[in-house]
Structure formats: structure tokens, C-alpha cells
């Protein structure tokens, strides 16, 4: 989980700088984004550890995470989460989430 967060933070830092944000703004945006990613990824991890797994709630979490990753510029992960959100096979969704997000 930390790996994908750190990669996303670096992408966001670079993008925000290129967009012309000031250093103070970048720090605030990064802190907020990192906090929200950590919170939602932790929630998703807990959902994956429960039995039975509630795929509906997992899909809500995927949707929230997709938005966070895309907002922070990690299009690769955001697009993959979009794909998983639209997947119909529950087992594949769970396996792919665990691999992608290392949870």
C-alpha cells in the first residue's frame, strides 16, 4: 500500500509543479491527497479481510480510490481501478486489487 501511495505522491508533486502551483500549495495538496488515499486504502484493506466479502462496498471504495488516483495524476492506477470497478467476476476483482495495491 505504501508503494502505490508514494508513487502517486511523486507523480502528483511533479504534476502540481508543472501546473504552476506554489510550493506551499503543493505541500497542502499532497498532504490532503496522501491522507485521503491512506484512509480509503486502509478501508479497502479491511473490507478485503472480512467474510463474507461485500463486493458492493468494495466497488464503492474502488470508485472513491479511482477519483483520488486520477486527481493526483496516477492515471495507470486510476484506469486499472476503473477497469476493476466494471468487472463482473468478484474473484478477479479481489485478486487484482490485492496485486495492484499490494494489500
User: What distance lies between the first and last C-alpha atoms, to the nearest angstrom?
Assistant: 6 Å
The percent range for helix content is over 70%
Radius of gyration: 14 Å
User: How many extended strands?
Assistant: 0
Discrete helix count: 5
For the largest beta-sheet, the strand count, sense and barrel status come to:
none
**Strand portion:** under 5%
Low-pLDDT segments, ≥5 res = none
Order of helices and strands: HHHHH
Overall average pLDDT? 91
Q: Determine the structural class based on helices, strands and strand pairing.
A: mainly alpha
User: What is the 3D form?
Assistant: elongated
Total number of domains? 1
Please, could you describe this protein's structure?
The structure is a single chain. The protein has one domain. The longest helix has 27 residues. Helix 2 packs antiparallel against helix 3 and helix 4 runs antiparallel to helix 5. The protein is built from five helices and no strands. With about 100 residues, it is an all-alpha fold. Helix content is about 80%, strand content about 0%.
Short key terms for the protein model shown above:
103 residues; 5 helices; mainly alpha; single chain
Q: What is the compact description of this entry?
A:
The protein has 103 residues and is mainly α.
Secondary-structure map:
Blueprint: H1 2-18, H2 23-49, H3 55-71, H4 75-85, H5 90-101
Helix pairs in contact: 1-2, 2-3, 3-4, 4-5
Amino acid at each position: 500500500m505504501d508503494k502505490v501511495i508514494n508513487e502517486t505522491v511523486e507523480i502528483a508533486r511533479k504534476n502540481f509543479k508543472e501546473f504552476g502551483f506554489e510550493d506551499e500549495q503543493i505541500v497542502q495538496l499532497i498532504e490532503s491527497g496522501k491522507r485521503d488515499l491512506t484512509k480509503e486504502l486502509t478501508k479497502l484493506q479491511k473490507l478485503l479481510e472480512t467474510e463474507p466479502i461485500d463486493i458492493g462496498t468494495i466497488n464503492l471504495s474502488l470508485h472513491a480510490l479511482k477519483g483520488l488516483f486520477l486527481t493526483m495524476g496516477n492515471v495507470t492506477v486510476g484506469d486499472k481501478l476503473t477497469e476493476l470497478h466494471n468487472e463482473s467476476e468478484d474473484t478477479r476483482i479481489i485478486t487484482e486489487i490485492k496485486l495492484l495495491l499490494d494489500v
